[in-house]
């Protein structure tokens, strides 16, 4: 499968004549088939890093390689699941999932077979002819995941995909995602600001600092799956990661307070 | 019909019925000169005469349905409708590709936008003298005026529709590997459709206003011509009958456009963003 190499990546945004260093000297190696969570408060550059891997934006310096190839633009080898679902509202559920396959020029029977398989796998078969507006948030995110799986991407990028869902739907989709990950062996980079979510899902959680975005700690989560959030070790990790994230959240808070007082 | 809808229908009928009764009373009691304002009954009678065929049916009149439609009103209505449809097709047919181009391409937008902004506020009616000078009398100036009337609403909405396409759809499609052409056909165009159809509806409404004015000035057939002609003979009953026909006709066009909208935008109905 496919590894991701992030080498000395910096990203600087210029807003209103000020330079904001979003990412500073990021070095990260993600093994093939690994499940990585990027964790941190908003403004820590975790989504910026994910967008750079997706190819939506380019690092100011440094490079990112997927499967040894330099990333220059978005592509179906790095399927993305967005927090806002980003389903095409004018296409039925079925057509949404088939869209990437149609772009790839697959034959009609091949598309049908794969779409049927994914609809079935994600429990969407009865909704196949419906439109996204008819579906709940959890169902929409299943469709978005199916749309990426249809492409057979070796890498799946997820930008706070379950952030807008209620706790029960969220746990349900987390379990589903772990199942899918096991079946497909996909490399997953998952952005979240939920500490518990990162411990529940990831092989490794990368904690990021608030501006400039750097890697604060790279924490391996060596718990057997399925993981139990009431387990003492789970809770030890939760406390440890919680302290780290809160430190950064405090820096975020201070920076905002200063910005407001300066006005 | 259940009790609720019947109640609502009755409720809605109160004011129109009251107006008709007062209007009829004004004529019946001779409070107002029927030359100025004929009674509703007189208008209805005139409308019926206007609607029915002018000659009796004979076997050599041919098709019965055609004979049924051989009255003055169906003839006028068809004349106006064909102008609206023809003019709209020309106007919207030119506006759509230009709008799509201006919406997607910044260079084209910058080139054409100044001219569009200068021409857009000119009411289509103001083109009448020029239209007659260029095209003489008859259908050509009418088509010209109607196409101008429908051109700008369709153009402006198409540009706005393309420009407002949510960036998230573009990102998702790029992520799936969509080419420029696929992006345009399968993402930008459908995402802009609600705006484009809203523009078409406004354009159709404008076309309908313009056709009546154009027929009053440049053509001698159609609903607009007929009410102006009736004025020359002091047929105020026919003027009002014609006006009601125009109103019903406009309503029918709007209902048809709305039905088309709903059919094409099933995915959009009740969409929250």
How would you describe this protein?
The complex is a heterodimer of chains A (263) and B (273). Chain A has 263 residues and is an alpha/beta fold. Chain A has a domain at 4-77 and 153-262: P-loop containing nucleotide triphosphate hydrolases (Rossmann fold, 3-Layer(aba) Sandwich). Chain A has helices at 46-54, 93-103, 108-121, 137-150, 167-184, 195-201, 232-262, and strands spanning 4-15, 18-30, 35-39, 61-66, 69-70, 78-81, 155-159, 187-192, 204-208, 215-220. In chain A, strands 6-7-8-3-9-10 form a six-stranded mixed beta sheet, sandwiched between helices. In chain A, α5 links the parallel β7 and β8 (187-192). The longest helix of chain A is centred in the last third of the chain and has 31 residues, at 232-262. Chain A is globular, with a radius of gyration of 19 Å. The termini of chain A are far apart. Chain B is globular. Chain B has helices at residues 3-28, 40-51, 64-68, 72-104, 106-119, 128-135, 139-163, 167-175, 180-217, 223-232, 236-264. Chain B contains eleven helices and no strands. The two termini of chain B are 35 Å apart. Helix content of chain B is 77%, strand content 0%. Chain B has two domains: 1-32; 64-264, Orthogonal Bundle (MetI-like fold), CATH 1.10.3720.10. The mean pLDDT of chain B is 90. The longest helix of chain B is centred in the last third of the chain and has 38 residues, at 180-217. Chain B has 273 residues and is an all-alpha fold. Chain A binds chain B through residues 54, 56, 73-76, 78-80, 82, 84, 86-91, 99-100, 103-104, 131-133, 147, 151, and chain B through 168-169, 171-179, 182, 186-187, 190-191, 193, 266-272.
